[in-house]
C-alpha cells in the first residue's frame, strides 16, 4: 500500500516569524523617522502660512484703528478680522501659545514680531528689549537668536518667526507756522496755533500740541495712517477750528499763513 505523506502546516515556524519581525523592525526604523520629519515639515509650512495671514490681519487692524493691536489683547483684536477664534489666534496647531512682540525702539512701532514654537517643552520670550527684538528680527530661518536657552540648540527648525515691517504703512505730515513771514496776512507776532490728531476710528485725540511762530514753528507728525484726521486750529486753545486734513496715500506739508491752514 502506498503511503500518503502528511501535509505541511501552512502556519509560520518560529524562525520564520522571527525573520519577519526583524524585517519589519528594520523597515520601521527607516520609515518612521522619515514620516515624522514629513509631518513636522508639513506642520511648519502650515504655521508659516497661518502667521502670514495673521500678519495681513494686523495690517488691516492698523488701517482701521491707526495703531497695531496692543500686546495684552492682540489675539482678541485679530480674531475680529479672522475666521479663527481668539484662542486659535493665540495658539498654534500643537496647542502652544504664539508670542506677539512690538518693537520697543519707537512709538508707533514700525515692526512687529510673531513667534511660534512647534516643539513642546521649549520656551519663547514674552518680552524683549530693543536689542533683543532686533536680534530676533535679524535671525535667519533655521537658526536660534543669540542668548536663547541652550535647550533650543537642536530644535531651530521648530521656530517660526513672522516679521511684519509697517514702515510703508505710515505717513508723515509736517505742520509749519509761517504767520510772521513777509507778505503773509496780518497776524499778531508770535501767534501760536494748535493741532489734534484723531485715530481713524476714535474721536479721542491721540496727539495734540501747539506750534509757536518762528524757528520753533514746525512740528513733524509721524506714524500716521491713511484716513486719520488732523484737526488744525488758528489759536492755541483749540477754539477756532480752521481745517481738518484727512491723511491720504502720501506724506505732505501743511502751512499756516497767518489766517488759514493750507
Radius of gyration, taken over Cα atoms and rounded to an integer in Å = 32 Å
Average per-residue pLDDT, rounded, comes to 87
Largest sheet: 4 strands, antiparallel
- The residue ranges in which pLDDT falls below 50 over 5 or more consecutive positions are none
Please report the total strand number as a whole number: 10
Shape: elongated
Helix content: 25-40%
Following the backbone from N to C, one meets helices and strands in this order, namely HHHEEHEEEEEEEE
When the domains are counted, the total is 2
Taken as a percent bin, the fraction of beta residues is 15-25%
Structural classification: alpha+beta
Distance between the termini: 125 Å
Give the secondary structure arrangement, pairings included:
Layout: H1 14-65, H2 74-79, H3 86-90, E1 99-102, E2 111-117, H4 130-138, E3 159-165, E4 171-177, E5 193-198, E6 205-211, E7 218-224, E8 229-233, E9 241-246, E10 252-256
Parallel strand pairs: 4-10
Antiparallel strand pairs: 1-2, 2-3, 4-7, 5-6, 5-8, 8-9
Report on the architecture of this protein:
This protein has 262 residues and is an alpha+beta fold. The chain is 27% helix and 23% strand.
Amino acid at each position: 500500500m502506498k503511503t500518503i505523506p502528511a501535509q505541511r502546516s501552512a502556519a509560520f515556524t518560529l524562525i520564520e516569524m522571527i525573520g519577519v519581525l526583524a524585517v519589519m523592525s528594520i523597515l520601521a526604523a527607516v520609515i518612521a523617522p522619515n514620516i515624522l520629519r514629513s509631518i513636522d515639515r508639513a506642520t511648519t509650512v502650515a504655521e508659516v502660512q497661518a502667521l502670514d495671514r495673521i500678519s495681513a490681519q494686523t495690517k488691516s487692524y492698523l488701517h482701521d484703528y491707526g495703531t497695531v493691536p496692543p500686546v495684552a489683547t492682540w489675539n482678541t483684536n485679530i480674531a475680529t478680522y479672522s475666521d479663527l477664534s481668539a484662542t486659535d489666534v493665540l495658539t498654534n496647531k500643537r496647542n502652544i501659545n504664539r508670542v506677539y512682540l512690538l518693537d520697543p525702539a519707537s512709538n508707533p512701532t514700525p515692526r512687529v514680531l510673531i513667534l511660534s514654537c512647534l516643539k513642546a517643552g521649549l520656551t519663547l520670550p514674552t518680552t524683549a528689549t530693543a536689542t533683543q527684538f532686533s536680534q530676533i528680527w535679524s535671525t535667519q530661518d533655521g537658526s536660534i537668536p543669540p542668548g536663547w536657552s541652550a535647550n533650543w540648540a537642536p530644535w531651530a527648525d521648530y521656530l517660526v518667526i513672522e516679521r511684519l515691517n509697517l514702515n510703508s504703512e505710515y505717513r508723515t505730515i509736517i505742520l509749519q507756522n509761517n504767520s510772521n513771514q513777509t507778505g503773509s496776512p496780518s497776524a499778531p507776532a508770535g501767534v501760536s496755533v494748535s493741532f489734534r490728531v484723531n485715530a481713524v476710528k476714535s474721536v479721542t485725540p491721540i496727539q495734540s500740541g501747539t506750534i509757536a511762530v518762528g524757528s520753533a514753528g514746525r512740528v513733524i507728525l509721524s506714524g500716521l495712517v491713511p484716513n486719520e484726521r488732523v484737526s488744525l486750529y488758528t489759536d492755541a486753545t483749540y477754539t477756532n477750528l480752521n481745517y481738518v486734513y484727512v491723511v491720504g496715500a502720501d506724506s505732505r506739508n501743511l502751512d499756516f499763513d497767518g489766517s488759514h491752514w493750507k
